[in-house]
Design a protein that fits this description.
Helices cover 35% and strands 19% of the residues. Strands 2-1-3-4-5 form a five-stranded parallel β-sheet, with helices on both faces. A four-stranded antiparallel β-sheet has the order 6-7-8-9, covered by helices on one side. Strand 8 and strand 9 form a beta hairpin.
C-alpha cells in the first residue's frame, strides 16, 4: 500500500476523478490543484495531477512540481482527447486515462514508484537498506539483521519484515498485508499472515518479538522502542553486575 497525493480542483471524491483508484488499497490524500497546496503537502510516494478539465493548469502544475526539486513520481490524469496534446516536457513521469481500470492503474503506480526507487539506489548505495531501530533490512542482498545478529528468514518472512519496517508505526490489516506481501493473486486466507507473524516473532527472539505489535481487531504494525525503554536498556547494559561474595 502506497501513500498517494491527488491534486485536483474538482469537488468530486477521488473515486469519481479516477474510478479505478477506489478499488485499490492505497492511502489517498486530496489537495487543491494549486502550487500553494504543495507547501503543506504530507509526505507521499506518488503525486496524481487531475488534468481532465483544465489540461493547461495541470501542465503548469506538473512543471511547478519539478521546479521544487522533489523527485516524487508524478502521474497526470487525462481524458482521451487530452492525450493528443500531452508532451514529454511537461514534467510528469507518466499519463493515465481517467477511465483506466484498477489493474492498469496499479501497474503504472508500481512502475513509477519502482523507477524512482531504482534511481535513488543508483545515486545512493545505502538507499536499498532499511533501518528501523536495531532492525536492518538489505533489499539488495535479501538479508536482515537485528542488533547485528543475522536472521534466518524465509522469502515471505523477509518480505513481511521489510514491509513493516518500511512503515514504522503504521497499522496494516491482515488483508492489506496479504495484498502487499503476497500479492493480489494470492487466494489464501488471512490466517497466513498470523502464522508468518508468529514465526517472525520467534526468529526475532523473546527480547525483540514486541517489535511486531498486534492492534486488536485491526492487524499489525512495526513498533519502534521508545526512547525511555532504550535508555533503560542502555543503562542496564552499562550497570556492572555485583560480584559473587562481595560485601553487602
Amino acid at each position: 500500500m502506497s501513500s498517494l497525493l491527488l491534486l485536483t480542483s474538482s469537488l468530486q471524491p477521488s473515486a469519481d476523478v479516477l474510478p479505478g483508484l477506489s478499488l485499490l488499497g492505497h492511502q489517498v490524500k486530496i489537495l487543491p490543484a494549486e502550487g500553494s497546496a504543495l507547501l503543506e503537502a504530507p509526505d507521499s510516494d506518488l503525486l496524481l495531477v487531475d488534468g481532465r478539465q483544465d489540461l493547461a493548469q495541470a501542465r503548469d502544475l506538473c512543471r511547478l512540481i519539478r521546479t521544487t526539486g522533489t523527485d516524487i513520481p508524478v502521474l497526470l490524469i487525462a481524458t482521451e482527447g487530452g492525450l493528443a496534446v500531452v508532451s514529454h516536457d511537461w514534467g510528469m513521469d507518466d499519463v493515465v486515462l481517467h477511465t483506466c481500470g484498477p489493474a492498469e492503474l496499479e501497474a503504472r503506480i508500481k512502475l513509477a514508484i519502482g523507477r524512482n526507487s531504482a534511481a535513488r539506489e543508483a545515486s545512493d548505495p545505502e538507499a536499498h537498506v532499511i533501518r528501523s531501530g536495531e532492525v536492518v533490512v538489505d533489499d539488495a542482498t535479501y538479508t536482515a539483521k537485528i542488533g547485528g545478529r543475522p536472521l534466518d528468514l524465509t522469502f515471505k518472512e523477509f518480505e513481511l519484515l521489510k514491509f513493516l519496517a518500511q512503515h514504522p508505526g503504521r497499522v496494516f490489516s491482515r488483508q492489506q498485508l496479504l495484498q502487499e506481501v503476497w500479492g493480489y493473486d494470492y487466494f489464501g486466507g488471512t490466517r497466513t499472515v498470523d502464522v508468518h507473524v508468529r514465526r517472525l516473532r520467534a526468529k526475532l527472539g523473546p527480547e525483540n518479538e514486541t517489535l511486531i505489535g498486534t492492534v486488536r481487531n485491526v492487524g499489525y504494525r512495526f513498533v519502534l522502542p521508545s526512547k525511555n525503554n532504550e535508555a533503560a536498556a542502555d543503562g542496564a547494559r552499562l550497570t556492572p553486575s555485583p560480584r559473587l561474595g562481595a560485601d553487602a
